[in-house]
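User: Some background: our group keeps a shared notebook of sequences we're curious about, and every so often someone picks one and asks for a predicted structure to add to the entry. Today it's my turn. The entry only has the sequence so far, pasted here. Could you supply the structure so I can complete it?
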Amino acid sequence: MPPSPNLLFYGDNLKVLREHGRGQSVGLVYLDPPFNSNEDYNVLFAEHDGTKSAAQIKVFTDTWRWDIVAAEAYDETVIRGGKVSDALRAFRMFLGTSNMMAYLAMMAPRLVELHRVLKSNGSIYLHCDPTASHYLKMLMDSIFGVQNCRREVIWRSGWVSGFKSKAKNWVRNHDVLLYYVMDMNAFTFNKELAYKPHEEGYERRGGGGNSLGVAIE
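Assistant: Of course. Here's the predicted structure to add to the notebook entry:
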């Protein structure tokens, strides 16, 4: 039986996808995975009577390490074969058992499941930072196909007016959106919805007058 409309799941998306995700049932995916922020992330909700829920626990620690869990995720995906297996094995040769390899090993099976549930006319947007975007793009290519990569969008995260006094590098001020479709011949891009005006009174940070806001599909 398919999930009810407007049903919200808490927990590991891999488990949810495998238990509740029907094949070709999702039209749009926005994925905002952690970026090795060294933070703990919790499920934040309460029971009906207002007390803390027993399920309000640490969901994951965004500090990736190569351990038995990462190794099992890697082995599982490699054994399935295909281009994603080839990509992971190539990453392993290059990255070894690094933190980044652990991150990619955990991302791979989740992207495979998202590919399974995406409709033929569906789209997926993966939000990542420049430290991982090049690896994730190759991983996405291996799962969704190079031909189905529609755009790499640079998302400027804020106005940068200068360097901090102790900075020894260029200031990081952007993230990356990797935009893929399931089938190049089936998806629809609504160009008329691509732009909409900002609210009245909006002023562009740093000057330069008003500009158009962007809405993704």
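Suggested note for the entry: Residues 99-117 form the longest helix (19 residues). Residues 87 and 138 are 7 Å apart (CA to CA).
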